[in-house]
Amino acid sequence: MSTMTNWIDVARELGPLFAERASVHDAEDMFVAENYAMLKERGFFAAGVPQELGGGGASHADLCAIVQEIARHCGSTALAFSMHTHNVATQVLSWCVGNKAPEGLLRRVAAENLVIATSGGSDWLQGSGKLEKVEGGFRMKGRKIFSSGIPAANIFTTTGIYDDPENGPTVCHFPVPLPSEGFKILDTWRVLGMRGTGSTDVELDVFIPDSAMGGLKRTPGKWHPFLHLVALSALPIVYSAYLGIAESAREIALGMARKKKDDPSMPYLVGEMDNLLITAQVVHASMVEMVKTAKPGPDATSAMGARRTILGQTLVRAVEKALEVGGGAAFYRSAPLERLFRDIQASRFHVIQEKAQLRLSGRLALGLDIDG
User: Fold this and answer.
1) 294 conformational bin, left if phi > 0, alpha if psi -120 to 50, beta if neither
2) pLDDT computed for residue 214 by the predictor
3) Cα dihedral sign for 289, 284, 122, 110?
4) Which residues on adjacent β-strands are paired with residue 116?
5) Is 323 helix (H, G, I), strand (E, B) or coil?
């Protein structure tokens, strides 16, 4: 399954099944396990791996479109899936420019149909957790939040901070195979929206062998080239989920509006909703295009982060307007718009968050050190 048409066709086939279960997952704070199983059976978790490495060969733009389509049916499934997908996509972008380090992992994802979860969003610049040197490796202790998709994951990519005798505090990136002794999934995911993503906390008291610690090392709180690559690759994929939610909200609201189209204010409300959604679609399209043309670095991170801020603000407003279009009926929990309104609020919390983006972009424009 290597063409975009096939991937989208399958996502559209599965989507109504996801939609049927969405309200139950939301009401019961239940991970979208069945949906993940169906995506896994159809090969979606290897979709972004290049065909040369045994995967589905979907492009970065294809992956965005897949996440967007899934989100039109179930936002939680799309967002959780986007966390695996952006991890794979970032490794692919690195591999495509000549870095062969990700090749082993990408081949395993394709051959073994592996699912990746990550703590990257909650760690980001600073990193978290404590690494201590022990015989043959390291002991990692820490607690991570927002570990989306962790109930179904085979690999957990995370960070710890090692107090290096020569270089001082150092953020180390490494994978944890699952299940692992000392790795505990906690039951903490009781939230406003996106209740089916399984983004629960995890506790780690695990052994990491030296062989697994040969990857990225960086200074806490400082930008690193890899983080610029992540910002460029991940944001369009993650926000594809929120765009799909807003598009679904628009369709639902429009259906409700048709029942009261004689209301003289209704055309204005629908026009406002559509203008907001079109703005979001245009901004998101520019994010997807940037991945094809931009070189990872501070300028690209600033430009992508600014688009993430604008897109997030616009999507929240668009779904708020959809709720207004739907009227009082949209306020009931039995109406899908109520759930979509709650789900879209999660768009506020992904890196690079608004104030951090404004500071980064402002410092860059003024010629100041972005790490200052």
Assistant:
1) beta
2) 76
3) negative
4) 155
5) helix
